[in-house]
UniProtKB/TrEMBL annotation:
SUPFAM superfamilies: Cysteine proteinases (SSF54001), Ricin B-like lectins (SSF50370). Residues 35-116, 124-201 form the Ricin B lectin domain. Pfam families: Agglutinin_C, RicinB_lectin_2. PROSITE patterns: RICIN_B_LECTIN. Residues 230-292 form the Agglutinin C-terminal domain. This is Carbohydrate-binding module family 13 protein.
Length: 305
């Protein structure tokens, strides 16, 4: 089952059968930029990412540069953005942790205007053009017609992202988008690569999935006690959902991929949670008993829910 923590009635049911199939797998962003969850880094430096300061949902919180957080930590959510297209062909960029939108303060066209986080208000201050520039992109505000610019091209924690008139070829207005979500079709490809047939009956209202990294699942596991739970897999699944409700304020836009697996035949009565590996290439299992992630827990047949 794939849980969606914004809608308790939505689920996807998965049934897998083992067979030896190998298939190449990769994620490729479409051109123009496809909707999805992205990490956004400054030109030629994947070590510095755009984020909402502290992941705060407060209006006027600074959008800034910060050394890229380790994938799988809670702080990495400050640096993930839900990029969606609007009906008029523009984009909105919503921070996963804060739930607020990238906004040009007051819609001002003055060079140096701070780009901030602001809750949805429907204004053009929060609408952007994302323009392909070779392997990078420029981000232009619809209201001000100025570009997201790293102030002074200074790589330091807390340096502001500002609006600035187009500088031509300056590197501090070029951004790299790294996709961090998967689709149902890509989940199916990963399962096939792992040697499973994945039959999906997907009733979730969102076609986009966020895969919690192994380190994050381990962190959540250490925060909860499952000792009194008779069904630890389902209990941990609910614990992840509860954690997400308190830490991901943009949860309406995607589904969280954390499933439940129960063994059959030789692995009868064994239970695990399942998701994808951190590079999305294969199905992996998470033990709700030990808090560890493993590639394959043994047994010939598993029921996936």
């Amino acid at each position: 089952m794939v849980r969606t923590f914004h809608n308790t009635g939505a689920m996807a049911i998965y049934k897998l059968r083992t067979h030896p199939v190998k298939r190449n797998f990769c994620l490729v962003a479409a051109m123009p930029l496809a909707q999805g969850i992205y990490s956004i880094t400054i030109y030629d430096s994947v070590s510095w990412a755009m984020e909402i300061a502290g992941g705060s949902p407060s209006d006027h919180t600074q959008v800034q540069i910060w050394q890229k957080a380790s994938f799988g930590t809670k702080d990495s959510l400050n640096q993930l953005w839900m990029v969606k297209t609007t009906t008029n062909g523009n984009y909105t960029l919503r921070n996963l942790r804060s739930g607020s939108y990238m906004d040009m303060a007051e819609g001002s066209a003055a060079n140096g205007t701070h780009i901030i986080g602001f809750q949805s208000n429907g204004s053009n201050n929060q609408q952007w053009k994302i323009i392909e520039a070779g392997e990078y992109y420029k981000i232009r505000n619809v209201q001000s017609q100025t570009y997201a610019n790293l102030a002074g091209n200074y790589h330091a924690n807390g340096n502001h992202i500002i609006g600035y008139k187009d500088t031509g070829g300056e590197n501090n207005e070029l951004w790299k988008f790294e996709r961090r979500d998967v689709s149902a079709a890509e989940i199916q490809l990963s399962a096939t690569k792992s040697g499973y047939d994945l039959d999906i009956n997907l009733t979730s209202r969102n076609p986009m999935f966020y895969v919690p990294p192994a380190a994050l699942l381990s962190e959540i596991w250490h925060q909860v006690s499952l000792n009194s739970s008779s069904d630890k897999g389902l209990a941990f699944q609910q614990a992840v959902s509860t954690w997400a409700e308190g830490n991901i304020r943009a949860a309406q836009d995607f589904s969280l991929l954390v499933g439940y697996a129960r063994g059959t035949e030789q692995a009868e009565n064994a239970e695990f949670n399942w998701t994808l590996s951190d590079n999305y290439s294969s199905v992996v299992f998470f033990s709700p008993t030990t808090g560890s992630t493993i590639a394959y827990p043994g047994g010939h047949s598993w029921g996936f829910f």
